[in-house]
Amino acid sequence: MHIGFLGLGNMGSAIAANLLKGGHPLRVWNRSPGPAAALAGAGAQAAATPAEACEADVVFAMLADDQALREVLLDSGLLERLPPAVILVNMATISVAFAAELAQRAQARGIAYVAAPVLGRPDAAAAAKLNILAAGPDAAIDAVQPLFALIGQKTWRFGAQAQQANAVKLTVNFMLAAAVETLGEATVLAGAHGIAPQQLLDLLTGSIFPGPVYQGYGTLIAQQRYAPAGFKAALGLKDLRLALAAADAVAVPLPVGSAVRDSLLDAVAHDEGGMDLAVLGQVAARRAGR
Hints:
14 helices, 3-stranded mixed β-sheet, 55% helix, N-(1-d-carboxylethyl)-l-norvaline Dehydrogenase, domain 2, 12% strand, 6-stranded parallel β-sheet
């Protein structure tokens, strides 16, 4: 398959590199030329415009947010110019409402639209160990599944309505941020009683809270290692806001989500938005005067 790829941040670059390793012709575009040039050195073709990158059988998009996608795909008129045979795969974490709009507008053009946000940090993306949350037309997902196999360890399918995959992604990110918030608060509480962060982490991950979230983010909190960021706090805030909006649309209270949003706002207010989500541990310490 000829593949186009829009958006080469930390995640996008790693995903595109694995698609390239699969032997597929790949055209890539990014707002800043550096990441596209790096992939061109590995055999990809750097596109001068998004439209040039979209001259493909399958187009992947991994842009930052709703606004970036709207500018590149809709405001530019690019979606209207895509050939009906193309499959558009959006891997970005976007709002449920905008995902539904994109799916509707693609369907009106006869374009197969697949939502495929992912679970995993950049290291998982580089290792092709992502979990892919897919929703959209079954035939389109079947067609791109060989490509998903190049970038992820499992594809989880959530139905024919594309926005359902985005609802799941926002739900998971809400839970992730809540877990990191409690890790940060718990570390400060134990520390105030003379317990070393690593000692607490060893207990938690070796008993009732095993797994990558507590192990990975717990280690960052214990070591106060908040940069470089695998998942920026500012992006976590963006996702919490989207989760709260999705909850508000269906009258579902998320009181924990509101509290975590405020902690992330605290981080951004202290110029920590570019740090890793684990900086919630620093926020908890600051609030406790420690």
